[in-house]
Specification:
Distance between the termini: 27 Å
Structural class: alpha/beta
Order of helices and strands: EHEHEHEHHEHEEHEH
Oligomer: single chain
Radius of gyration: 17 Å
């Protein structure tokens, strides 16, 4: 019997770390795509009985990502998409290249790359795709113009993909977190009432 294989895309994030803690007992093989392999190696060194495969790549490099996905074996049981990019909203409004980067990283590249993974799922067992997006994608926001637009597009893609795969054994789950105490949240200087803010540990359990 083949090992249960999980893909995590966006492994350098705090929520990825917490998800791996929970998933390591359910999957014998975990492939992690990340921007910073050093960070991931540090937190996975404590896990036993799991075969880790780390792939360091930047999400903006579409063709490189596609080639790396082609090298993955056709035995996937699950894909959790976490990767994203908050961006600088003021700069994006003035500089089209920055706006394009936000759209590429939060919408265009994720939907193209998820589509590349689909043929690699096992055909004979239940599997899943989980896409983490943002509450910002539920409506347009002046202070997060490109980010909210891109996240809205990602939500729509996941909804359409769920319908597309309804007769397959792949379930598609859209996760729309609100405020979460992560590095981008703290660096961005965002504020919200404490009862509206969750943490990566709780979010991982809910997912």
């Amino acid at each position: 019997m083949s090992k249960k294989h999980l893909i995590i895309y966006g492994g350098s994030s705090l929520i990825a770390k917490e998800l791996i803690k929970l998933m390591s007992g359910k999957f014998e093989k975990i492939t992690i795509f990340c921007r910073n392999e050093k960070i991931v190696r540090e937190y996975i060194k404590h896990f036993e009985n799991v075969e880790f495969n780390l792939i360091q790549v930047d999400l903006i490099e579409l063709e490189k990502n596609i080639q790396l996905i082609k090298s993955i074996t056709n035995d996937i049981d699950g894909l959790i998409w976490i990767a994203g990019h908050t961006g600088d909203a003021d700069l994006e409004f003035k500089n089209y290249k920055e706006g394009k980067k936000n759209i590429d990283v939060n919408f265009l590249n994720p939907i193209l790359l998820i589509n590349q993974f689909i043929p690699k799922f096992k055909k004979d067992s239940e599997s899943f795709i989980v896409g983490l997006t943002s509450v910002a994608g539920l409506r347009g926001r002046a202070n997060r113009l490109f980010y909210s637009s891109a996240k809205s597009g990602f939500i729509a893609f996941l909804s359409g993909l769920r319908q597309k795969l309804k007769n397959s054994k792949i379930s598609v789950i859209t996760v729309i977190p609100g405020y979460m105490k992560t590095i981008p949240f703290e660096k961005g200087g965002w504020t919200a009432p404490s009862f509206l803010i969750t943490n990566p540990q709780k979010a991982a359990k809910l997912i």
